[in-house]
């Protein structure tokens, strides 16, 4: 049977990915694993490679929002509407008139920061929900959008706290951080996350940092289901026209930078969050209605990046999907996991004492060939730590 590194080397050489960078650490200091894999005819990948994190940005923005809670500027269960005018006016979409105008009713429930951080606030993504795309077209929202308000001036899909839809809610949480602190999200993160952890290659705006921009790799696309992926230099799928930091999708970073945040949360060193706040991240956060909606999503994991066995033991923590049970082969209860659109993935298991990140730049999301490599990476890390 091929080793993990043999599997990745073969996959990269066959063109399933242009390159891969993996980093893993454990709590005890026994595991410190780092490896880069590159294809000879593609852009080289190494530890200094800068990638679009896409939705892996959500963990970082969640940490920033929790820092604001620690400062007493807001609570997790306080109505955010006074601080986010965009959300204050949003009702719930119920249908469309014959002329195409959206029919919207007032909502009953307030929207809280906890709901924003757990995708249970009623929001959606217009690229997932056709009805929201229809509203955007009716309102003539700009594409691409330059600001949070331009991108997400859309109604809710359900009453806050009574459902789950993967959404732009953490982009709104990032805007909340800005409005509460009076700082840009980039500046707030730099002062309170990036600099304390030494994440010197992480930014929302790589074009403003020539050294970071020079190390970016292009996105590769799988245009042929059985052929190699094709890199597209100059692709701007997450940067075009952006004037604001989009906290749910907009960060660029290296894998060594990203694992610094994971490891800080793993060992609970309080460099970015107090111990009691970090502990909250690894606890179930959803209401029963919201949890059932999340479980329905995991039963149809076509767009999910990584391995999601049908254990029915999932919730949402603060930062990612939470393993909420003991049926998984190696992930411990309370493990947090999530990924990014270009088939990136991270995991953080405080019970087993391990964390890791898998980086590549391949679209579309949830590529079956990459999923297998991600699962093999997780298993390799648990084996190295003596947990599998």
Oligomer: single chain
Helix content: 25-40%
Sheet bearing the most strands, described?
7 strands, antiparallel
Q: What distance separates the N and C termini?
A: 17 Å
Order of helices and strands: HEEEHHEEHHHHHHEEEHHHEEEEEEH
Please state the structural category: alpha+beta
Structurally, the number of domains stands at 2
Give the percentage of residues in beta strands.
15-25%
Number of strands: 14
Mean pLDDT: 96
Please write the CATH class name of the largest domain.
Alpha Beta
- The number of helices is 13
Gross morphology: globular
CATH architecture grouping of the largest domain = 3-Layer(aba) Sandwich
Strand order of the largest sheet: 2-1-13-12-11-10-9
Name given to the CATH homologous superfamily of the largest domain: DD-peptidase/beta-lactamase superfamily
| C-alpha Rg (nearest Å) | 20 Å
Name the poorly predicted regions. none
Which topology of the largest domain does CATH recognise? Beta-lactamase
């Amino acid at each position: 049977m091929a080793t993990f590194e043999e599997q990745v080397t073969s996959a990269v050489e066959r063109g399933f990915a242009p390159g891969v960078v993996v980093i893993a650490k454990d709590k005890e200091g026994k595991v410190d694993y780092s490896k880069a894999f590159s294809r000879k005819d593609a852009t080289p990948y190494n530890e200094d490679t800068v990638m679009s994190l896409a939705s892996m940005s959500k963990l970082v923005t969640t940490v920033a929002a929790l820092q604001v809670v620690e400062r007493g500027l807001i609570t997790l269960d306080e109505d955010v509407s006074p601080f986010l005018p965009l959300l204050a006016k949003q009702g719930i979409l119920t249908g469309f008139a014959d002329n195409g105008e959206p029919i919207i009713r007032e909502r009953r429930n307030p929207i809280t920061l906890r709901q924003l951080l757990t995708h249970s606030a009623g929001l959606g993504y217009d690229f997932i929900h056709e009805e929201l795309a229809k509203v955007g077209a009716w309102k003539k929202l700009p594409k691409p959008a330059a600001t949070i308000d331009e991108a997400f001036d859309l109604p809710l899909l359900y009453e806050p706290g009574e459902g789950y839809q993967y959404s732009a809610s953490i982009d709104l949480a990032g805007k909340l951080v800005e409005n509460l602190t009076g700082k840009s999200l980039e500046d707030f993160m730099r002062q309170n996350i990036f600099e304390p952890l030494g994440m010197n290659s992480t930014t929302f705006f790589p074009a403003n940092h020539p050294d970071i921009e020079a190390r970016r790799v292009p996105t590769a696309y799988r245009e042929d289901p059985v052929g190699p992926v094709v890199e597209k230099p100059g692709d701007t799928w997450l940067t075009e026209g952006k004037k604001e930091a989009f906290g749910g999708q907009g960060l660029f970073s290296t894998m060594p930078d990203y694992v610094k945040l994971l490891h800080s949360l793993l060992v609970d060193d309080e460099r970015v969050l107090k111990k009691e706040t970090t502990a909250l991240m690894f606890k179930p956060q959803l209401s029963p209605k919201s949890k059932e909606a999340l479980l329905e999503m995991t039963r149809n994991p076509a767009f999910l990046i990584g391995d999601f066995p049908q254990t029915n033991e999932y919730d949402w923590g603060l930062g990612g999907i939470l393993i909420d049970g003991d049926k998984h082969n190696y992930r411990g209860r309370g493990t947090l996991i999530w990924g990014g659109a270009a088939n990136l993935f991270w995991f953080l298991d405080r019970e087993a004492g391990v964390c890791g990140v898998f980086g590549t730049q391949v679209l579309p999301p949830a590529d079956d060939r990459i999923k297998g490599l991600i699962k093999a990476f997780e298993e390799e890390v648990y084996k190295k730590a003596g947990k599998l």
